[in-house]
Amino acid sequence: MLVLITYDVNTQTKDGSRRLRKVAKACENVGQRVQNSVFECLLEPAQWVELKDKLLNLADMEKDSLRFYYLGKNWQRRIEHFGSKPSYDPEGPLIV
Amino acid sequence: MLVLITYDVNTQTKDGSRRLRKVAKACENVGQRVQNSVFECLLEPAQWVELKDKLLNLADMEKDSLRFYYLGKNWQRRIEHFGSKPSYDPEGPLIV
User: Fold this and answer.
1) Is B37 part of any domain?
2) Is residue A77 part of a domain?
3) Which residues on chain A are in Cβ contact (under 8 Å) with B78?
4) Is B64 a known ligand-binding residue?
5) InterPro entries from the xrefs (chains A, B) (predicted)?
6) pLDDT one digit per residue (tens) for chain A, 96 residues
């Protein structure tokens, strides 16, 4: 299943910058960054449970915003990309 | 249908900042900003054709990135939100 993760982390404090780095790192480990704070993660359900738990613990629920979009199995037909940073294939090699 | 729009507009130039404002404005007119550069737009197909055309003309395809995610009719079960900026109901009043 493909899960799209978008986040806004409040970086007005040093702690915020640290949270941002950690949230991004957790997503990068298992998914592809497609835009600044937008990740596409092709995951098994168990992997998602783990990542979600990690993200909810890393973020500050008072200051940060996490949004998860469940695109399911037929995600290819749900996504269109235009412009720079050419699209990639989530099922292809992880580009890090 | 619900279309999720995420964008990265390169603002290194004055023209980039202008493009960013216009892209955001075009999305704000018909949708809800849920995060910094993330909009959820509940639209009729004809409205989407118009918005998409507008966005593709506003953005610079060499420098900016536009991603469209088609969440379909049963979008409610595809979205989860945690943290600040409490979720809103795309079918509710447009909060501007």
Assistant:
1) yes
2) no
3) 69-72
4) no
5) CRISPR_associated_Cas2 (IPR021127), Virulence_VapD/CRISPR_Cas2 (IPR019199)
6) 999 999 999 999 999 999 999 999 999 999 999 999 999 999 999 999 999 999 999 999 999 999 999 999 899 999 999 999 755 556 655 544
* Cα–Cα distance, A40 to A32 (Å, whole number): 5
Query: What backbone phi and psi angles, to 5 degrees, belong to B44?
Result: -75, 150
Domain count for chain A, please give it: 1
Residue span of the structural domain in which B7 resides: 2-72
Residue of A nearest to B53 (CA): A82
Residue B20 inside a domain? The answer is: yes
In a domain, A28, yes or no: yes
